[in-house]
Amino acid sequence: MSYQLELRHFTYFLAVAEELHFRKAAERLFISQPGLSRQIKQMEEIIGAELFIRNKRNVSLTAAGVYLKKELSYIFNHIDFTVKQTSLIDKGSEGEIRIGFLGSAMQTVIPNLLIKVNKEFPKIQFSLEEMSNYDQVNGILSDELDVGFVRLARVPDGVSIKQVQTDTFSLVLPKNHFLNQENFTSVAQVSKEHFVLFSSDYSSIYYDKIMSICEDQGFTPIVSHKSVHAQTIFKLVESGLGVAIVPTSLQYGFDLKVKFLEIPRISQRAELSVIWKEDNRNPALAKVKQLLF
């Protein structure tokens, strides 16, 4: 008997690939475990490749399975988005732009962009999600995002990057700290204090720049806490658990008992860039890109 691949085969495969457990995948799909196993075996026979390594305790993907999972995830993401875009266009919209961003982009860059787009293309809609650099790049590659706002020096082939903002750095201190605008001259003045920094997972290049600011002043900071969220960092500083160094623009939009002192006479700058996939087919993206640069 000959068989052909159907959409259900791909749905079943992705469930097992994500769960790496046939019983859990079967429960998720509301089918029997033996039935799911037969469908996966049938799929492997049609393709002519083993997709899973099975033993009594574990299920893992073969190299072919890893490749298929990556490609199918991209295809399913694109199908879901295409269906959503079709529905939006039918209702009179010009589509949706999916934006990933680091927190600092929400201070000025993204609000300014949304104002411009709303004025020029009021029928374009947006969805926004704060994400790490790593997750944004993966989202762009897998067609889950159209645009990302990142702090990166390099991006993978097929992804474009363009700088949109250059910012200075500021020292963040509790309100009652002895340093102020009049007596602050260098971060070396807080060399003995504990630091609360953005995690290197947030942006490795940004983390390295902060370390270099301190090292240029002759010390290595004592890092007591790390976070990927500015609000958390500022709350820790407010509580007296350390000082921080952040892009100056992050001082806006928070109501906490901290103060910001721009660091003078340093060469380091916080550079924010926008990224997008070069072969992105979302028609709304071309319109939005006109207003980015």
From TrEMBL:
InterPro entries from the UniProt entry: LysR_HTH_N, LysR_subst-bd, WH-like_DNA-bd_sf, WH_DNA-bd_sf
Entry-linked Gene3D superfamilies: Periplasmic binding protein-like II, Winged helix-like DNA-binding domain superfamily/Winged helix DNA-binding domain
UniProt source species: Aquimarina litoralis
Annotated keywords: DNA-binding, Transcription, Transcription regulation
Similarity field: Belongs to the LysR transcriptional regulatory family.
Keyword check for Magnesium: no
The keyword Nucleotide-binding belongs to this UniProt entry's keyword annotation: no
Classification via SUPFAM superfamilies: Periplasmic binding protein-like II, Winged helix' DNA-binding domain
Record-annotated membrane-spanning stretches: none
The HTH lysR-type domain, residue ranges: 5-62
This protein's name: LysR substrate-binding domain-containing protein
